[in-house]
C-alpha cells in the first residue's frame, strides 16, 4: 500500500527523488533537453540584496581617493583631508586588505556551521549595474559635499537590510550538513608524511599498505585534490588584483590631472561598470558560439586572456601618464605649479582619453574574475566551497598588500614607472600562468567526470 501524506493522497517515490536538489551529471547534460527554468523570487531577492549592498560599497570607495588626497576648496577637484596621492593610495589599499581578508572567516563559518545554502551570492551583472551608483555619488560629492554621497550609501545599505529581513524565510534553507573541514586537514596531515602526495592518503592506499582504516573515502581525497588545484589557480590572481584596484585610487588621481570638461574626476571609473554590463552578454554569446562549434576556450585560456587584457590596460595608463607629463601647463607636476592658477588649471589632456583603460579592465574582469569564481566553486570539495571561494578574496588581499608596498612611489613624477611596472608584471604573469596551468584545460573533463562517478556510486 502506498504511503499517505498528512493531507491525503499517495506519495510518488519517483517524484520525491526527482525533487531533491543535486548537480546534473555529464550524461544528463548531454542526453536530456535543456529547458530554461523560471527564476524563483528568492533568487531575485538575493540578487537585489547583493546589488543594494554593492550600491553602497561603490558610493563609498569611489569618492574616497578625492576625500583623502585633496584639500578642501583647494582646486577644481573635490577634497577634504589633503593627505596627498601616495598616502591616500596606501590607506585605500589598507581598506581593501581588511575587505578581502574578512570573507575568509565567514567562509569557514558558512561551511562548518551554516551550510552553503544559507550563503547569499549576487550576480556579476547586478553587481555592475549597482556599481553605477558611483555616477550620482560623484556629482553629489562635487555639488553638495561628501556627506550627501555617504547618506545615499547609508540609505541603500539600510534598504538591503530591510529586504534581507523580509525575504529571510525564503532565503534561509536548513539542510543536512557535514563539516568536512577537519577531515580535510587530517587528509593533508597524512599526505604530509609522504611529501604531500595526496594519493597516499587515500583509504585504499592506507588499507592496502598499512592496514589502517581512515574515516574518508578515495573520492573525498580526489575532491580535495581538485580544490587544491583551484587554490593554486586562484592565488595567481594576486597581481591581477593589484592592477584592478588601481581603478579606485591612482587612476582616479590620474583623471584629476586632466581636463575634466565638467565631469567629476572620480566618475570616469564608473565606465568600467558600464563596460561590464555591455560586454558581459557579448562575451557570454562568444562562449556559446565557441561551444556550439566545439572550439576549446577553457578556464585557463580565459584567465590568460584576462591577464593580457589587464596588462594592456596598465600599459595604456602608463602611456597616458607620459602624455600628461608631456603637456602643459605643469607637465610632470599637474595642478602643482604657478601656471595652474592655484591648482585650478589641469594639464590640457581630455579626460575621456582614459576610457580605454576602464574598458580593458572591465573585459579582463569578465574573463578573469567570473571564470576564477566558477572554477573555484566547481572544483571545491563538497561543503568546503565557501572556503575555496574565499581564497579568491585572499588573493585580492595579497594584491592590496602589494598596492600598499608600492604606494610610496604613487606620486608625481613617478607614475609612468608605476603603471609600466604593473603592466610588465601582468604580461609576465600571463606567460607564466599559461605555461604552468594550460594543461588543466585538457584534463578538466576528466576531473569533472570523477565527480559524476562519485554521484553514481553514492546513488544520487
From TrEMBL:
Membrane topology note: Multi-pass membrane protein
Record's subcellular location: Membrane
SUPFAM superfamilies: MFS general substrate transporter (SSF103473)
UniProt KW keywords: Membrane, Transmembrane, Transmembrane helix
One GO CC term on file: membrane
Transmembrane feature ranges: 90-109, 121-140, 146-167, 229-248, 268-287, 299-317, 355-378, 390-410, 416-435
Pfam entry (one): PTR2
GO molecular function: transmembrane transporter activity
Family as reported in the entry's similarity comment: Belongs to the major facilitator superfamily. Proton-dependent oligopeptide transporter (POT/PTR) (TC 2.A.17) family.
Protein name per its UniProtKB record: Related to H+/oligopeptide symporter
Organism in which the protein naturally occurs: Cephalotrichum gorgonifer
